[in-house]
Structures are given as C-alpha cells and as structure tokens.
User: Fold this.
Amino acid sequence: MQNHHNTRRQFLKGLGALSASTLIPVSAFGANVLNPNSISFDNSVFEQNNAQTIILYLYGGASELAGNLTNLEEINAKSQNPYPLDSITVTKNHFWQEAGGDVMERLLNNKDINIYRTCYRTVDGHRDHGTCTTQAQCGTAKFQQGIATTLASVLDYNNALSMDANNPKSLMPFISLDGNSKFYLNDGLDIPNSFKPVTLDPRNNPYTLSGGNERYVLDPSKPQTTSEYLENLAKRYNVDGVFKSYFERRRILDDYIKEIQEIQPPSGIEYPNTRFGTLIKNAVTIMLDNPYTKLLTMGTPGLGGWDDHSQALANYPRKMSDLFEALEVAIEHIKNSGKTNINIVIFSEFGRNVNYNNAKGWDHGNNQNVYWLGGWDYFNHQAIVGETKLTGNAPRIYTKPTNDSYHFQIFSVASTLFKLYGITNPEVITRNQEIKNLIA
Assistant:
C-alpha cells in the first residue's frame, strides 16, 4: 500500500515555489532539530479550535507601564528622576490612560482582552535584543526553529491542513507582513514549500509588474504589458520547476494583494489613517477573507520602535495609544464579521526597567506584559493576571512577580500557541507549559 503521508509530501514539494517565501532565513546556529515523532498532536483539537492567530511583535522591548501602574507611587519615590505625575492618569485597573489605558479598559469590560502582567524573563540573564528576540520568536532557548516553522512542521507531519493546488488561498497557511523575521527560522526542518510563509506587503505590492506606462513599450504593435510579455516568455522557454513556478507564484500573490486592497471594512468600522492602522486592517482583512491562513506575523511600522532608552514619555504614550486604538477597531471588525476564532497576541523580547533615567527613558528589564485579544471560541476570559512588586536600586529599579503571583517565561506564549493548534505536549518543544487556564 502506498504511504499517504509520503504521497502528499511529494505532491506538495512538486508544487515548487508556488507559495513559498523567498525570504526564509538560514540559521547560523548548529542544527538541533525538533523530532516530530516526539510531538503529540490531537487533530480533533486542531479542527475544533479552528484557530487563526495574528502575532504582533513589539520590537525593542516595550515597557509594561501602559498596562501596569500598580506600583507607580513607589516607583516615583525610588526613581533616579521623578516622573511627571501630573501628566499621568491612572485608570480603574491601573492602566495608563494617556498610553492607551482608556482603550484597555473598554476591551476589558467587553471581555475582549486578557492582560498578563508577569511575563518575567529569567533565562540565562539575557537582556540583549538579538538573543531575546531569537528566543521569543522561536519559543525556546534550545532549538533554532521559529514558532511558525515549528508549527508548520508539525501540521505537515500530521496531515492537518488541506492543500489544493487549484485554490491558491489554501497555499498560504503562514503569512508574514514583517518580512524576514525569526518566527520563520529553519535549521534543518524538512518542510514543503507550500508550508513556508508568504511575505506580503499590501501597502506597497512587491509582486506587481504591470503599470500604465509600460504598455506597448516592448512591442507597440501588440497590447501587451511587460508583465504579460515576461510571463509568456517564461511559459515558452522555462521547463517545469522552480523557475517557472516563481512566475506563477508572482501572479497569484499579485492578484491576492489586489483583492485584499479592494476589500473595505463594513460601514462604521474605521481604522486610523496611519501606516500601522492600514497594516492591522490588512492583517484582519486577510484573516477574515482567507480561513486557510493559520498564522500571520507582523511588527508595528509607523509607530516607531519600543527601545525607549531616552525621551520615553515624549513618545511612548502616543505609540501605545495609537497601537491600542487600532487594535480596538481590529477587534470590532472581527466581531462584526461574526468570526470568533481569531486571536491577536502582543509581546516583545523583554520588558524595561522602571527607573526614569537621566536621558528621560527606561533601560532593558525583565518583566513585560503579554496582551491576548479575541479567541472567544477557545479562550477563557481571565481579565488581568499577575501582580508585581518593586525591587532593586537606582539606576536598576524593576518590577517582578510578587511571591504568590502567577508568572511565566516568554516561552509560554509559544506553548500556548502550540496547544491551541493541537499540540498536547508543547513543553517538549519549549521546556515551558502553556499560560495557565487561558485555553478553555
């Protein structure tokens, strides 16, 4: 009897680069490859949850203070420099009103968000961007495969995704709006091209070749664009395989981006007219339009980075406010569609100290907030989880979990995602359990 798994893998590999990203990085680390035989997978959980996830990564290490001002008076008393308390409004649940706190309160009241205040990093004592981003986006300190790559490998191995060469949307289970991120690191995993991420930029379509000024340029006697001319040449001279598939893939992605650009939110759903507002609108539109897309990763272009060593109070409140105002619209858009299987998770490589330094900013720290929105089909509404206490001396003053508070490493974010998609023993991958009681 022919092996179904191998047959399917050969079929997918035969699709060439039809939907494979050309931007998959090659890890510089030694191979320490995950063995899929060690992973327990429950397809019934995968199908029942039918989860779709937007990962929103705050590059640079975002401060926790927008979502946690519970220790503000003590912080101010011990800080190297005093905070301008007259410009900081503390909300009912100790959010920073001027930094998106009013939006967080509304999301909390509507049971649209869980806020975890004690994602506390202790692994290896690292607080550098490179190491911590790799660990956060791989979900582990051991392997060098990204969260998306690991999930793709497991889903492929267990034949969990339906792939149809005649349906291009089914060939886009993983999408990056963030280019070449470490969520897609692959150090030795054997993954079919169709499970590798598609890199999209709906704002500036990188796949289109046609344009009004190019018509008739090559051959004035024929109404043919440069794009059409090149594709005809490819069909005529390129043999079947990778090179020919790239032309087919480019056309598919070009058409798909144009389709996304044409879709407008329902009346009354208005995203902020900003670069980030447009990006999160496109992310939500893709998820609503394409149920085959399981994971989409993105950063926050247009808001600025989160490495607030200096002039933090001049920039951070605006960035957090812009971030959560756009997210509130995104949640409204998702709910308006009637879909309750989409979730958005927001995290960073590490947190920041709370000492207000001489440059009027915050240095790298251990504690951060993890914000998890949506996912009503499978998430419990836990509201706010985790309590912090202040420790250290200036210039290193930071929060940490209280002695009796629940807390977790950044790797538990990956464990939760893996569990959500049917992996019943995610600790084998991450060496950490999923976030406690989040998944119903």
